[in-house]
Amino acid sequence: MEEKGEKVVSSAQLANKCMVNAAQVRKDLAYFGEFGIRGVGYFVKDLLNDIKRILGLNKEWKMALIGVGNLGSALLSYKDFLKLNYNIVAAFDIDPPKVIGRISEKLGKPVEVLHINRIKEVAKERKIEIGLIATPPSEAQRVADLLVEAEVKGILNFAPAQVTVPEGYVVKDVFFTTILDNLAYLLSN
Amino acid sequence: MEEKGEKVVSSAQLANKCMVNAAQVRKDLAYFGEFGIRGVGYFVKDLLNDIKRILGLNKEWKMALIGVGNLGSALLSYKDFLKLNYNIVAAFDIDPPKVIGRISEKLGKPVEVLHINRIKEVAKERKIEIGLIATPPSEAQRVADLLVEAEVKGILNFAPAQVTVPEGYVVKDVFFTTILDNLAYLLSN
């Protein structure tokens, strides 16, 4: 809406876009403070900034990618991360020389691919807070353990395997091939 | 397990890998028929084939990609789709000439990028069953409508916007940047 130059939005309009009801929108926002003006709505620009602040998106998040195979390369080439304040500042693989050629073909300014055994040192040095796991599923837990050891608190796990982390660490899964399998199942039944 | 040459697996082992309990594994499988041998377990190869059949993965699924921007290009370059029996057989964009250069840099044998207005005709011709939406969120519903019109029954929606489809159609969302935002929120609070 900001890109379209819209200045004001009502809770009803927001509700409609999110497919919830307007009371829910008002209630959810009220949870974080006072926004908007009764009878007018919310100023788009202000609300966007407030939501970014609430979500922790008003800062740059430094990320490490682990596993520069097929999926990892695709993630490295996904430039919108940066637009969203996420920045892949390091990439790791068990065999960096093998993958570097493939990467540099894809990216103007390639991220240096380092050996996985340097993760602890580099994570500290570059203040990495989020790790993206894009290894084969069989390696996911081992990588999660390395990230925990390196005190990387957040993990986005693209490898379709459940991993566990100690308290104080957070894992979120993005198993899109599993979701695709689920879709295929629904279509064939 | 098959890749590792393992022949037999118990429900306890499966449960452990899936982080559920063994009774649940047995119950879930029993829902689809009789598998495994009491006191022995399941033959890995047979079980894999049975699960593939149940999930509808013993056939090739033809997919169309809509939106060949940043994310779309990454999806096109994701070769594991094919290994999983998913095949992107057509790609569409509102401005094919603009994106074709970018694609062919990335892929040995590029998928032809067609204008979005050809989707209905091409979907029928190439028997497309799944559409991947990788457009900006503002275009997601419009693209979903086109897919429905083209009778593409399944949609995997990567554009972070809710879309609705009529009965008989299925949408699954993969909003990984939203999941990343959620992770950032949890880390900053």
How would you portray this structure in words?
The structure is a homodimer of 189-residue chains. Chain A contains 9 helices and 8 strands. The first copy, chain A, has helices at residues 11-18, 22-30, 44-55, 70-76, 80-83, 96-106, 119-125, 140-149, 176-187; strands at 8-9, 42-43, 61-66, 86-93, 113-115, 130-133, 154-157, 170-173. In chain A, the strands form 2 sheets. Chain A has a 6-stranded parallel β-sheet with strand order 5-4-3-6-7-8, sandwiched between helices. In chain A, helix 8 links the parallel strand 6 (130-133) and strand 7. In chain A, helix 1 (11-18) packs across helix 2. The longest helix of chain A is centred in the N-terminal third of the chain and has 12 residues, at 44-55. The radius of gyration of chain A is 20 Å and the shape is globular.
Q: How would the blueprint of this fold be written?
A:
The structure is a homodimer of 189-residue chains.
Chain A: E1 8-9, H1 11-18, H2 22-30, E2 42-43, H3 44-55, E3 61-66, H4 70-76, H5 80-83, E4 86-93, H6 96-106, E5 113-115, H7 119-125, E6 130-133, H8 140-149, E7 154-157, E8 170-173, H9 176-187
Parallel strand pairs in A: 3-4, 3-6, 4-5, 6-7, 7-8
Antiparallel strand pairs in A: 1-2
Helix pairs in contact in A: 1-2
